[in-house]
Automatic annotation (TrEMBL):
It catalyses: monodehydro-L-ascorbate radical(out) + L-ascorbate(in) = monodehydro-L-ascorbate radical(in) + L-ascorbate(out). The gene is Cyb561. This is Transmembrane ascorbate-dependent reductase CYB561. Its cofactor is heme b. Keywords: Cytoplasmic vesicle, Electron transport, Heme, Iron, Membrane, Metal-binding, Translocase, Transmembrane, Transmembrane helix, Transport. The chain crosses the membrane at residues 12-36, 56-76, 88-107, 127-149, 161-180, 200-220. GO terms for cellular component: chromaffin granule membrane; lysosomal membrane.
Length: 251
């Protein structure tokens, strides 16, 4: 830097945990693809394989991309807050879009095969996760990304935004685990208890989902790994508070 100070560094261990999370995330995506490709015939849109688009999109969107969106503030610790915020919103937007494709796929597949919708615990948890995730996205954009909300309103909502962000990530993984079990019981109920390769692979996918969730959750809940406010951010916060609350920064 200009004053000769050493460049900012990440806390010890943070980079390693983030790297492990990404390795787990890519592995669970590869495992999902391997399961669908090897045992379920692959993925296609306008065919009997349309259903398989659903698990692939939900794992990619509601788990991997959502988890990465939550990690943005830990990974990009020294970049401008607005850029980090925009990336956070962009990843969540991409996760929502991909998940919507997965939801459309399962409803269309059910309709073409005459299968009823929304009767299982998996479908209830999954739809709740998606709808609440969409609501969380709208509220997050309204409070933090676009101007308008007062400083005190942002400050009061921020703890709720953080809590529900983590809670929805947990709910999404739970819905995926329920979906894996449901799919196995539908497809290989006669042989599942005999430790057949498909059952073992799908169970392994479930463990990878849990592991990914645990690592991401650990990174998010370490207080000493939180993104420190930059000096210019503190100044801007005080200016923003003065403009929106009509009081002096010290007041």
């Amino acid at each position: 830097s200009m004053d000769g100070a050493p460049p900012p560094t990440s806390p010890a261990g943070l980079s390693a945990y983030v790297a492990v999370s990404q390795l787990l995330g890519l592995t669970l995506l590869a495992t999902t693809g391997a399961w669908l490709g090897r045992y379920r015939g692959g993925v296609a849109w306008r065919s009997s394989l349309q259903f398989n688009v659903h698990p692939l999109c939900m794992v990619l969107g509601m788990v991997f991309l959502q988890g990465d969106a939550l990690l943005v503030y830990r990974v990009f610790r020294h970049e401008a807050k607005r850029s980090t915020k925009a990336l956070h919103a962009l990843l969540h937007s991409l996760a929502l879009l991909i998940s919507l494709v997965g939801i459309i796929a399962v409803f269309e597949s059910h309709r073409s095969k005459g299968i009823p919708d929304m009767y299982s615990l998996h479908s209830w948890c999954g739809m709740a996760a998606f709808v609440l995730y969409l609501l969380q996205w709208f509220l997050g954009c309204g409070f933090f990304l676009f101007p308008g909300a007062s400083f005190s309103l942002r400050s009061r909502y921020k703890p709720q935004h953080i809590f529900f962000g983590i809670a929805l990530f947990v709910l999404s993984i739970t819905a995926c685990l329920l979906g894996i079990t449901e799919m196995l019981l539908f497809k290989i109920s006669d042989s599942y208890s005999q430790f057949v390769p498909e059952g073992i692979l799908a169970n392994t996918l479930g463990l990878l989902l849990v592991a990914f969730g645990l690592v991401v959750g650990y990174v998010l809940t370490r207080d000493d790994w939180k993104r420190p406010p930059l000096a210019e951010e503190l100044g801007l916060s005080m200016d923003f508070k003065t403009l929106t609350e009509g009081e002096s920064p010290g007041g």
